[in-house]
Write a structure and sequence with these properties.
The structure is a homodimer.
Chain A: E1 5-6, E2 16-18, H1 42-45, H2 51-58, E3 63-65, H3 68-74, E4 82-84, H4 86-92, E5 97-102, H5 113-125, E6 130-135, H6 139-151, E7 154-160, H7 161-166, H8 168-176, E8 180-184, H9 190-198, H10 206-219, E9 223-225, H11 232-237, H12 240-251, E10 259-263, H13 268-282, E11 288-294, H14 299-302, E12 305-309, E13 318-322, H15 345-353, E14 359-361, H16 363-376, H17 385-402, E15 407-412, H18 421-427, H19 438-446, E16 457-458, E17 461-462
Parallel strand pairs in A: 5-15, 6-7, 6-9, 7-8, 10-11, 10-15, 11-14
Antiparallel strand pairs in A: 1-4, 2-3, 4-5, 12-13, 16-17
């Protein structure tokens, strides 16, 4: 009988995370202080993050043990299944073999809890009692609420007001796990109060929500802030996805993989699947590794490599990354998790090295791909995930044209059950594409003209 | 390391369904025609269901092969994991070992597609091109939409108007799988048009939606009707749940199970887990098998054993079952799937035989149980599932009092991500209990006084 999916036994789950910093051909350039222009040190971050996570952020150690307490929580839903997409292959008439890693089976419905669990644990052992964060569409806020609940930590989520009002189910999820989710701007911080005074009906923004969450963390007792993507340690916590997938591909009898893909907003689900395969590529394997993004927020495919703030409100250290400028406001596409002005420094460096090859897709094409997926493989993808499905369909068609039996691996990062409004707009013909006009991008980039410039280094030389 | 869950390999999945009719101590009494009072034959049902499913409905064969085409669709998400609920056990301080079968991992999020897939297949091979059904809260309509999509059948879902308006995400799920979901009453049937003429703002009812779906099926070309619970063949399709669970308990090293539980509205998810264990009990095993229902719709715990219509509009054959009367309108509890006036004839017969022991729970107690579950085991249960969790917590506390290492097995029938409104009402203190007043029940039962009476038979003698 055909094998549709492979589970791992729990004793086969990877026991360590993979830290790609140990294998980068060129080390990351350091984050720098926006005031001094000097590299920042661990102590500069200590009011915001616990020191054990800061140590992970800068660690050059290749393999880092997953603590037993973290593993016991991950085992609530991990290892996740690796499926073969026979029905989609058949519908496409492709000779390619398509595999997908199903991260949608976690209680909050995406890959996000892989790092939320780890971050909650490290905060707890560092003596932290309470974690703050921001959330846009709500996927990250849900995951951190879930993780804090399991470790008995308080959790406060500043949710962008327009999403808070439009997506009440996300707030209800967070409440069910005991978190306090409030709309941002709020009256609980100086940043929020200031905004409400000037603009009482402010719909909020991710940048402002970050500012509120950080202000709350640095001014409250036993409290730290948590970020759901972009940073090195966050991406590392996701590598359990790719490490599991490698073992599962072996069980499927696959000796090599040709294409690896995932969507990338901050970059964490893509990194989680891809980094163990990037290591193979560094060691000589011939793999095409593709992060997918929206044409409306084309960080990786069109933006320059710069030093920029991580948040819209310009309160974080400057990070070396591809960025559209921290004041960039992406169009209202449904893939809220891909509406970020920058991309993780680690992904940025891999792009410079030519180790990963980003592509951008329009919203309508992604929904068409998602609907084809749901009508063949069954499960309804998150709008973010649909971007990676667009890659899969493109590559599977290419394999058909070339008559090649390629192996394609996809990170199915989450289900779309909390985001069905986008499908409704798609079917009713209301959905449109928003390719980014060049002049809008250039205008946004003007805002970061005065910031320090990094040099794009590749294998020790300017790229 | 502790084992949190056990997967089966795909080649270990059960290859046959278990038909409990072969092992009933007393055979079921036949459905009868409301006009003639005589038992109905297969031909009477032929306009409504395809003959291959009617044959399954009356089959006395113990094991029935699962067709390869059905298996290939079930393998999109099956076998489902069996988890051990260590965190809940710890929170309760119980010596009991609690296991749960996770049916929430299916694409529509519940056990319902186990039968939807099978029914779509049998309709297809019988030459049917189009299936109609009704849906209340939307769980069944979603599952049938999904199944019809996979087999290339048209699907039309009549959704009770009040739910259609209040739960737009359910309709969007059905649309994503290509189904046509319309509010009932509709202009597409005589029954719907008649109601709309008399009562243009009619919020609809499950009974009327059934009438519309059946009228559509019997008057349209190549069309049949499909039901998501209650009938013998529907319950049989769910037995893959319990057959998988038995193998998984063995892998966990468990030699016997003490308590088996699931919630029961029509009875299908409970039957799916429980029937293979009922067989063990018939063969002498000492197992307590508990279907759980709401106190607001206490079919199994308070209603009489009668002949009654399956639908509110009194269009179906009369079924021998515990029933509150087909005109009974349950209070607006959030567990929409448990708001049915009757219970499957097979469950009714097992209650008469004393092989299963129903219990009823209040809504508030069930939400408290569901929240304790979400905050320990992680995943948010459907409001229906919370009734089975209430049993688990009660039994685990009893095991603690008695100091006994009991093994408790639960069917975690679905997640609550599409039904978070109930949790919101619970946290805001708005939720209330609706225990059924005796006089309301007696009034409802008056409506079936004139119908034929079955004799409750037990092992060949009156019960």
């Amino acid at each position: 009988m055909k094998e549709f999916k492979v589970f791992l036994r729990e004793d086969e789950i990877p026991k360590q995370w993979y830290n790609i910093q140990a294998d980068l051909p060129t080390p990351l350039q350091p984050p720098i202080h926006p005031g001094t222009g000097q590299p920042i040190g661990p102590q500069d971050l200590a009011p915001v993050f616990p020191m054990n996570l800061i140590e992970q952020e800068v660690s050059q150690q290749r393999w880092i043990d997953i603590p037993q307490e973290v593993m016991e929580k991950l085992l609530l839903w991990r290892p996740t299944p690796l499926h073969r997409a026979y029905a989609l292959e058949k519908a496409l008439g492709t000779p390619a073999r398509i595999y997908y890693k199903n991260e949608g089976v976690s209680p909050p419905g995406s890959h996000k809890p892989n790092t939320a669990i780890a971050q909650a644990y490290y905060n707890k052992v560092f003596g932290i009692k309470r974690i703050t964060t921001e959330t846009g569409a709500g996927q990250w806020g849900s995951a951190l609420s879930f993780a804090c609940c399991l470790f008995g930590l308080e959790c406060k989520v500043y949710m962008v007001r327009i999403s808070f009002d439009q997506k009440p189910y996300r707030r209800m999820m967070m409440n069910t796990w005991g978190a306090n989710c409030i709309p941002s701007p709020s009256k609980d911080t100086n940043a929020g109060r200031k905004m409400l005074e000037e603009y009482p009906d402010c719909p909020g923004s991710l940048g402002l929500a970050i500012s509120e969450a950080i202000e709350d963390a640095v001014t409250s007792k036993d409290t730290r802030y948590s970020l759901g993507s972009v940073l090195n340690h966050v991406l590392m916590h996701q590598t359990i996805i790719g490490l599991e997938a490698k073992k599962q591909l072996e069980k499927f009898g696959e000796k090599k993989v040709d294409v690896v893909t995932g969507c990338a907003g901050g970059g964490s689900n893509f990194a989680g699947l891809a980094f163990p395969f990037v290591l193979d590529k560094i060691n000589g394997a011939n793999i095409t590794i593709i992060p997918a993004e929206p044409t409306s927020c084309p960080t990786m495919t069109r933006a320059p490599f710069v030093y920029d703030f991580g948040d819209t409100a310009a309160t974080t250290p400057l990070l070396p990354m591809y960025s559209l400028g921290h004041t960039f406001i992406p169009p209202p596409i449904h893939a809220g998790g891909l509406r970020y002005h920058g991309i993780a420094p680690l992904l940025s460096q891999l792009i410079i090295e030519g180790l990963i090859e980003p592509r951008a897709y329009n919203q309508l094409e992604c929904y068409a791909a998602a609907v084809q997926w749901a009508r063949t493989e069954g499960a309804i993808p998150a709008p973010e995930t649909s971007h990676a499905i667009a890659v899969v369909i493109e590559e599977a068609k290419k394999a058909k044209e070339e008559g090649k039996e390629k192996v394609i691996l996809l990170n199915w990062s989450g289900h779309g059950l909390m985001d069905l409004g986008g499908y409704d707009s798609y079917f009713s013909g209301k959905l449109v594409d928003y390719p980014l006009p060049e002049d809008v991008m250039q205008k946004s980039l003007k805002a970061i003209e005065g910031l320090p410039k990094p040099v794009a280094m590749k294998k020790g030389n300017p790229a």
